[in-house]
Design goal:
228 residues, eight-stranded antiparallel β-barrel, mainly beta, disordered N terminus
């Protein structure tokens, strides 16, 4: 009788774990490394607030820095299969050089001198993101997932001269991703993954700048999550 009960428990226990692993609401925080790139279109007239200040030749040089984010969501498991939806806030400090500006006037307010060259840079800054995830429980404590999301970044294009001129530039991105999670305790888990952000639309005011190659960003990250 005892052997029969033990055998039944051995069969049922893993199924129970797979069927209820970490379901419900969660929140996680994390950080990592971001590498971004973009490229402005060549232009013979660079207009800021309606006035022409010079010309532009594009550059496409990736540059990395730190990234961080906070995410909240809700997950369900169906046997070994996993599904979740989540919302998050991100921040990235990458700052690639995306164009070379040559001034045709001298302007103290912008810090530019006629005939001198300066750099345009792009910084993603803050983003608001939403995503869905599809996963698989390889073991009761280990989840692998694929992610598809959308993100809007409140980015900036900056002209770095003797003074820094900031041009607010919104970027809409699609964000595929991949990652793993594993249980640390009843409430805690760790997470590691990578997202690739692909710009599909940009918008900026007070300038005529446009992108030859919209911003793209690779983010590798790790963090800690808590089940509510």
């Amino acid at each position: 009788m005892k052997k029969g009960l033990l055998f039944s428990f051995t069969l049922v226990s893993p199924l129970t774990l797979f069927g209820s692993w970490n379901e419900g609401y969660y929140i996680n925080v994390g950080g990592g490394y971001s590498s971004a790139q973009a490229q402005l279109k060549d232009s013979t007239t660079v207009q800021l607030s309606g006035q022409n200040y010079g010309s532009l030749t594009n550059r496409n040089k990736s540059k990395g820095s730190y990234a961080a984010g906070v995410t909240g969501g809700h997950r369900n498991t169906f046997g070994r299969k996993h599904f979740s939806t989540e919302l998050g806030v991100t921040y990235s400090n990458a700052n690639p050089n995306i164009g070379t500006f040559t001034a045709n006037v001298t302007n103290a307010g912008l810090g530019i001198t006629n005939g001198q060259s300066y750099s345009f840079h792009y910084k993603p800054r803050f983003g608001i993101a939403g995503a869905i995830r599809f996963g698989y429980l390889f073991m009761p404590e280990l989840l692998g997932y694929l992610k598809f999301g959308l993100e809007y970044n409140f980015g900036q294009v900056t002209l770095k001269a003797d003074k820094v001129t900031k041009i607010n530039t919104g970027v809409t991105q699609i964000v595929p991703g991949i990652g793993i999670e594993s249980v640390l305790s009843e409430k805690l888990y760790w997470q590691a993954g990578a997202d690739y952000k692909i710009g599909i639309k940009t918008s900026s005011k007070n300038s005529n700048l446009s992108f030859k190659k919209r911003p793209q960003e690779l983010v590798t990250k790790a963090g800690i999550g808590y089940h509510l």
